[in-house]
Amino acid sequence: MNVTLIMVSSVNGKITNGEDPDVTHWTSREDAELFSELKQKQNLIVMGSSTYEAGKNRLQLSNNTLRVVITRSPDKYQADIVPGQLEFTDESPPELIKRLSAKGYTEMLLTGGATINSLFFKYNLINTIRLTIEPKLFPIGKNIIIQDQPQVNLRLVKMQKLNTRGALHLTYKVIS
Ligand SMILES: NC(=O)c1ccc[n+]([C@@H]2O[C@H](COP(=O)([O-])OP(=O)(O)OC[C@H]3O[C@@H](n4cnc5c(N)ncnc54)[C@H](OP(=O)(O)O)[C@@H]3O)[C@@H](O)[C@H]2O)c1
Predict the structure, then answer these.
(1) What is the pTM of this model?
(2) Of all helices (H) and strands (E), which one includes residue 6?
(3) Substitution candidate for ligand 1 out of 46, 71, 96, 146 with most atoms within 8 A of CB
């Protein structure tokens, strides 16, 4: 399974502006368009339960895309399940990838947040990172990864300027 992590951050690497869970309050229209286009091309999107909670009011389900939410309490989300479109699991990332690979999925878009990103990094399962850097500094906020995360080495393979204010979209390969 090829796993691509997609995130948007401030220049100082914050993925939230303080405690505000709604990233649409500070991300650019151009980044939103890029993210939306990319999601439409995916048939598998995976996220943590806090990211699901933060964005569920804007979630647009589709027949062609399976969204999987990682939670330690899948039973809590029974009422939200839409078979084939929105599922909840307490599988570990390797277990999830094994099961979904057996079903024929080959590409996964991982959409955060920090906790689930680190869980995937722990098992060395992320191949590519697509990161938009918005030209902002936030004094407080969540980071792309959590604190007990080991170092990850990256190689930049593509750089796009998204708008005149200088939002940058960077594509990195994870290297060992
Ligand atoms: N800027 C961006 O690109 C971007 C992208 C994504 C998210 N975000 C923001 O980031 C925030 C969410 O990040 P987050 O790090 O708090 O949450 P997260 O990674 O989205 O989800 C964390 C949750 O996953 C569940 N979980 C499942 N397995 C786990 C395990 N083995 N260990 C620990 N937790 C496990 C836990 O909730 P349960 O109680 O359900 O088990 C945990 O609270 C939101 O505010 C969101 O808006 C920003």
Answers:
(1) 0.97
(2) strand 2-9
(3) 71
